[in-house]
Amino acid sequence: MTKKERYRLVIDYFSKAMPLAETELHYGSPFQLLVAVVLSAQCTDKRVNMVTPALFDRFPTCDAMAAADVEDILEYVKSVSYPNNKAKHLKGLAMMLRDEFGGEVPYELDDLVRLPGVGRKTANVVLSVVFNKAAMAVDTHVFRVSDRIGLTTGCKTPLATEKELVKNIPAALIPKAHHWLILHGRYVCTAKHPKCAGCGVKSFCRKYLGEHKV
Hints:
Layout: H1 3-17, H2 30-39, H3 45-58, H4 62-66, H5 70-77, H6 83-100, H7 109-112, H8 120-131, H9 140-149, H10 158-168, H11 174-187, H12 206-212
Helix pairs in contact: 2-8, 5-6, 9-11
């Protein structure tokens, strides 16, 4: 099976099986999504969604968060991973949005990654979810699933995986494909005990075919 054929099969499958794929983070504005994604680093979306209702009620906008003390923000995020650093990042990015971007979340990668706590993955999530840009955020799920299925070969870094996926997936589908791979990795192609028996892509999954000689 060629890589082109595998991409076609994967896209066809997910287009039918997961036509409405979207982020599981809860948010009410681009700023709130940005905050939620920063909080989700090395933390589950489920935990973040438990924290953000009270956080957003207290600090609904970047102006409100920029005016807060780090200690006040920390009280709302202390149950997520690395809360001290994240509280500082939220304060810092809110101030930068207020002072340099007129309170609006920027829509360019170079601007987003200047914000405290915002790396390439976080920036790409915002670009794809909020602005529907062809930006592929590569987290641990996307990195793992892409390699297992056979969408990527020999990619050693998230950036290499991102470039390979963007090269082979139609631009209009990339925002949705990001969620296809994340959700598949979260619920089916899990890290330790993948649920291969019930997996809809096993008939063209490189790892499954290699192990089971189907």
